[in-house]
Amino acid sequence: MRRALKGDPVAVDRDLRDSGERAFLVGLDYRRARKTGKRSLTAGAQSARDAATSVAAGAKPPSMPEFSADESLDELRTLATSAGATVVGEILQRRDRPDPATLIGGGKLEEIAGAAASADADLILFDHDLSPSQQRNIERILHKRVIDRTQLILDIFARHAKTREGQLQVELAQLEYMLPRLAGRGVEMSQLGGGIGTRGPGETQLETDRRKIYRRVRHVKEQIENVRRIRAQQRQRRESVPVAMVALVGYTNAGKSTLFNALTKAEVLASSKMFATLDPTIRGVELPSRRRVLLSDTVGFIRNLPHTLVSAFRATLEEVQRAALILHVSDAGSPLTAEQDAQVELVLQELEAEKKPRLHVMNKIDLLEPKQREALRDDAMTVHVSAVRGVGIATVLERIDQLLEEDPLSRVRLSIPQEEGKVLAMLAARSRIYSRKYRDGVVEMEAEAPESVVRRVREWVVK
Fold first, then answer.
1. How buried is 413 (Cβ within 10 angstroms: 0-12 exposed, 13-18 middle, 19+ buried)?
2. Which domain holds residue 346?
3. Which alpha helices (H) appear in 323-366, and where do they start and end?
4. How far is CA 284 from CA 79, 114, 264, in A?
5. 331 with 255: CB under 8 angstroms?
6. C-alpha–C-alpha distance, residues 408 and 141, integer Å
7. Is the domain of 264 the same as that of 385?
8. Which CATH number is 265's domain given?
9. Going residue by residue through the chain (463 aa), what tens digit of pLDDT does each one get?
10. Residue 25 near residue 80, CB atoms below 8 Å
């Protein structure tokens, strides 16, 4: 199945980003044909919640929702566009099993070669991970640059890494991806040593390149370890004060950064492009109870997120592991909500964070039809919002207040001398006051305050 597409080139940074290269997409489906029906958005969301509940409880759902081949190819197209490529054609190949040498077979590669040539494609993007030998075999047949899904995601990450920390983590993932792919790259891997004046075993270019990369990997890992130490010190300082961490997680482009801005009044970049947020951002938020929490915006997850990226970004994703509460943000308007949420669960499992307390935030309800919006109902673990329009933000803050177990709230009666101005100011700033009376130089009040505040005013608590 082949489709031709047109688009405008986009100037971007390097590799794919040099000149808006023309990309030809190759999708793959190794599952036998099966009947599939259209799901409603509401049914998809319900399926996602069921999968999330099962996985969070430590049990595998009866059937984990999966992307179809067409849906996966649609996502590859979005990834290619985010990398700055112009998609000029597509082919979807259905097989019972992969070909060990070329993944899709020599006959189909000949067809792709003709289609890519007629579309004047610069590179071929596979919606699948390729082994080093498969990539070399395919390039020999197609005579074009071939990039698999992992390399494409690494390229997008490299584009969006702005801080030194993010750049180091992307570089480590790229180096580890590159190492097994050095062999067999032609004449540039020929023997360097040997011959007149250089007698001895010599060293191949391949060995030289590997040695340089191993050296660079060690250097980058040392720098990332320094980053982790600095983050650990910062975390220790934060944890010395009873301020809970709340982490935003979700599939890429679910609207996490927009929700983060709505909750914190920050101005983090919010973009419809995939992986627009790569470097972590932490901001303070005041809850309705006057408790303060730290909110962390994290990199978006994606189907088959390369393991090298999860490992390289562990310093960043530690904020998720240390969080007291996770806000799982989903795109309520996407027909793939169930599949995307299932993939988020898998990444949380890899981070060993799947059992943490969680609030499911269904975002982008402004994109739903009026009847669909009217049918939505919040429950104890799910809130429906439109971050871009500010709908449901107050409800999210209330739910965070209810779900947080750190520094719990308690309701107390107090009798405080009026000359204790600092104590009264602290209570006004950090507690919810329900009543206040002035009598004989004493302020009698009833307030709801965090345990850390109650300890500081314990001498004035009325038993």
1. middle
2. 242-403
3. 337-350
4. 32, 56, 7
5. yes
6. 64
7. yes
8. 3.40.50.300
9. 544 443 333 333 344 444 478 999 999 887 654 444 444 333 344 444 444 444 444 444 445 577 888 888 998 998 898 888 999 999 999 888 889 999 999 899 999 999 999 999 999 999 999 999 999 999 999 999 999 998 998 888 888 777 777 788 888 888 888 888 876 544 334 444 443 443 444 456 667 788 888 899 999 989 888 877 887 787 677 666 668 889 999 998 888 989 999 999 877 655 555 565 566 688 889 898 888 889 988 777 887 776 667 766 665 677 788 889 999 999 998 888 988 999 899 888 888 888 899 999 999 999 999 999 889 999 989 999 999 999 999 999 999 988 988 778 889 999 999 999 999 999 988 888 999 999 889 999 999 988 888 888 999 999 8
10. yes
Other Cβ atoms less than 10 A from the Cβ of 266: the count is: 16
Number of structural domains (the chain) is 4
Helix axes 132-142, 106-118, angle to 10 degrees: 50
Using a 10 angstrom Cβ sphere, with 0-12 exposed, 13-18 middle and 19 or more buried, the burial of residue 458 is exposed
Q: How many CB atoms lie within 10 A of CB 14?
A: 10
Q: Residue 391 and residue 396: Cα distance in Å, rounded? A: 10
CATH of the domain at 79: 3.40.50.11060
Report which DSSP code applies to 332: T
Whether residue 362 lies inside any domain: the answer is yes
The verdict on residue 51 lying in a domain is no
| CB-based contacts of 370, cutoff 8 Å, min separation 6 | none
Q: Look up residue 372 and give its DSSP letter.
A: H
Q: Check if the beta carbon of residue 110 is closer than 8 Å to that of residue 141.
A: yes
- In terms of residues, how long is the chain? 463
Both 285 and 260 in one domain: the answer is yes
Which amino acid does the sequence have at 3?
A: R
Domain boundary among 358, 385, 403: 403
CA 285, CA 280: separation in Å to the nearest integer?
16
